[in-house]
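Subject: sequence -> structure tokens, single chain

Hey, anyone have a minute? Need the predicted structure for the following. Not urgent.
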Amino acid sequence: MRRHRMIHALLAAALAAGLVFPAGAAGASSFQDVSDPATSVNADILRLMGVVSGTGGNSFRPNDKLTRAQFCTMAVNFMGLEDQVVLHSTRTIFTDVPSSHWARGYINLAASTMIGSSGEGDSASAGTPLIAGVGDGRFLPEQELTYAQAVTILIRVLGYSGDKVGAVWPDGYLNLADSIGLSENVNAQAGDPLTRAQAAQLFVNALSCQTGDGQKYYTTLGESQADTVLLAVNTETDDGSSMGAVRTSSGTYLPDAEDVAPTALVGRRGALVLNEDHEIVTFVPDDSSSVTISLQGAAEPSYVSAADGTRYTIAGDTPVYTADSSEGKSYSEGYGLLTAGSRITLFTLRGKVTAIYAGTSATSASEDAVVVMGAASAADFHRLTGGAQGYTVLKNQQEVRLSDLEPYDVVTYDSLSNTLIASDLRLACRYQNPSPNAKAPQSITLLGHEFPVLESAWNFTGDVSLGDSVVLLLTADGQVAGIVPSDGTVRSNALGMVTSATSVELFLPNGGTLKLEGADSALSNENLVCSISASESDRIHASRIISRNIPGDFHPEDMTLGSQKVATGVRVYEQVRDGAMVAIPLSELDFGAITKDKIAAYHENSSGYVDLVVLDNATGDAYTYGMFQQSWENPDGDEDRGNRTIALENGTGGISTTPSGYAVRDNSFGGAAKGANGRIVSVVTLREIDGVTPADFFQRDDRYYVTVKGQTYAVASDVECYRTAAEDWFTQETGKDRLVACTAFSSDLTIYVDPAGQKVRVIAAN
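Reply:
Had a minute. Here:
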């Protein structure tokens, strides 16, 4: 049976407000006036339990003083006894708590609940009432509650009878509170009036305290599940029957209390407590610490690097959770989804990362947005944040000030990290396929993708009509927050990788990509990063990025390009001549500065940060490496006419026979780079170094190196390995696995190093 159905009105009267959670509200806390992180968590835990429901206007009023009647009500709800309140509402125990008093049932119930009662007959002990009057038949319900009185009540809730506390009040109770952790993080003296924030801290402390019977209090409330991460609130149940559920790493459950969406708990880890109906009774955060970071580069197999350069080692079996699903993945399975600029929360216990929460924009960010139309101020975002303060502002993954936001920037709110997320992504297109209608669309289908449309976009639809050339103002995760006429006021700035003659991967400010598919396109810039637009219906346009003046050398360690700053989520690519571009992880650029003559192009976002760098054969990673085979095609049988072709064999696919104007030596080790037209645009010969042994290899920061003849070389992460005697290739899935197998196979090795990046590209086991 769900709690609070019969006593909904009583609770509303008790705390002077209803329990309705505003549909668009979001913030560090579900209460709009709570900004302190600890109070946010505490208040939302009590809200989840039904202990509090807020005051007028969905406020918690953390600094208000509590009366004896109010604290009594909270204690009864905390113990889960509220279903018994009605039974105690018809009798009079205290002369100053008449039938008209809103808390009469709670006060009577608390006064009738005996702690420490035992036995039967003459030997029975009556115990101590949970809450007593002040003598002379009165309770003084409107008198402010003191800290000592609150501690006394909670000590009794925890099952400690008077004989376990001592005869001196309040000293015995206060000393016991200190010893069991009840008073932790509460700075108050015995006679001080208790604030609502202090009360919340006391109640949350009590959840983890040892009871008089020697068990943690929260374990007495139901079945507990440790190491659970809260992933999303106000979501759909697994069977789709209702909303308002809480998704966790242990499953999706409805709260026992009604009308709650404890946003401050999203991304927290701790013990989840369920009742016999598998409804959430409470959630108790554990003592693990957490830090939310933006990734400097894509996650590596054994570590992640924060934007400030801090590196966190991650074990392969560390669970990774997202708000989209209760099913977590191990880090070794899911690290590839954590791209540069991703916002993740790391849970650590005694210095070890124990879990990762990667909130997705669809659920961790607010369901609406604000489009900046002038000078931005905090008032513009009050509705998004629910009044939360102290938030961080990120624009295109870079921390900025509110004053740095510009007209037509789109801003959403991530309540987990208390962050405003600004995006300047704009895509030119035709306004088409709105659903359910053009004036209040919930989605727009364009180029094979259904774009979700936020309500903020409805403020703009009166200025555009179907078929108009428009610019979509997109959030960091690709939702439409505004639609403006394409009149030159707002220009498209979308970038993406052309992946075929009809499709592109649009770059999103959150580090992800979005696939667009044109029905009738002829993109000649395949495997090149381009400016993207769709000015005609279902037709993609792509223009190459050309940079004539490179501002200076690229310093990956300092994240600078000349005097310009490089964005946290910068995308780095490499190409050879006009060939296909290959993505280069920042972690691979660990060999110092890259001179400006090795930079083909760059792009600067609206904040003045470099968000794209295209290298000109600086690392050698744009080549495919293996063993050359050359042939001559004579389609007409004329030996004087024909086409020279090259094939390149390796253990992972290589390059099939391809036309080429280059001459190579059969069975030699080298590399080949292909162009957009599929032809070979460049070949290189690898430098041979023999006399290498397995002992010459070593590992550092999850990368392999080899030192031979006084020189150290990095081993390419996709290194190819060859068995000379058998004339075949090692075919393990990763370069690391191939290297391990190769060095275990033979003690006589030959390495082959490329001329550009000086990396080991092929290893031969002799």
